[in-house]
Amino acid sequence: MSKTPGDITRELRRRAIDEGFDALGIAAASKLERDEAALFAWLRGDRHASMAWMARDPSRRADPTKLLPGARSVVALAMNYWPGGDDEAEKGRARVALYARGRDYHKVLGRGLRALASWLEERTQEPARTFVDTGPVLERAWAERAGIGWIGKNANLLTREMGSWLLLGEIVTAAELVPDPGPHADHCGSCTACIEACPTAAIVAPGVVDSNLCISYWTIEHRGAIPERQRAGIGDWIFGCDDCQTSCPWNQSFAREAEQDPFSFREDLQGLDPHEILAMDEREFRRRFSGTALMRAKWEGMRRNACIVLGNRGDPASAPALRRALADPDPVVRDHAAWALEQIGSGAP
Hints:
Elements: H1 5-18, E1 23-28, H2 33-44, E2 73-80, E3 94-96, H3 105-124, E4 128-131, H4 139-145, E5 150-151, E6 157-158, E7 166-173, H5 193-197, E8 203-205, E9 208-209, H6 215-221, H7 228-234, E10 237-239, H8 243-246, H9 249-254, E11 271-272, H10 274-279, H11 282-289, H12 298-313, H13 319-325, H14 331-346
Parallel strand pairs: 3-10
Antiparallel strand pairs: 1-2, 2-7, 3-11, 4-7, 5-6, 8-9
């Protein structure tokens, strides 16, 4: 007896739980008209900074049939990564965004998505493609359309059950599945906590983040020198930033500790010693951080970021390490080390 779309959908949900996902929503593979318009406006405002790939054929991001001809359903999945407990980094260590403190989420989610897609293809005889921040997909928009949550004023996906400590992935399939009610209603109300908490005023409008001002962009995606006007705002973030999430009342009240630890969080990544990062050669950097999201910033970027953190601290005890960095083979690191020494000399915070 052949399985109905309802049968397939119910079994897919059970399998998603077995693969470690905490939420699944399904949407019909129709074009995201509103989100496409918002993306075009964001690009016209140069909010993507140097991330040129965001501007390549942007209409593909809103139309799943351009990713998979004949697409009928988009399966949005989310995995909770909040470990619970105190998030304070040890004194003297630079802060790391929570999602990067363990195994690279691309690999963790990717494995589960591929397993589900393979099962779906076998069961329905229809093609499927998976995405986990690896292709032109509006991930948060699809999760919102599929009823998992809503896009908050900090541009993160928010849920009433788990807050926003979620990593997202998608399966675009030509199979007919039963869609969930959506899009999800917005529950931010009049709250502006995330906007007020952003150290660099990067949330320029509700749901709109300007990458040119965002700490995560500068410390992770940007290559080369960081403009001096942006350095003080980075504070002691060496990789990414969580301020717009930790300030959110939904996270403060409803974040749910992950039942498992699929990302194998490491205590040594809760905070990093910027002096140690500056002293690492590339081989040691790869040995320590291979398999984590920290590799995205590269060895050069992490040393650059370490200089900024030390400059912002203004501690004279960091001067010897920064003077050694003046001989670094990378001119960007040398430039940032010189800037940091100037901050220490001037007594700037």
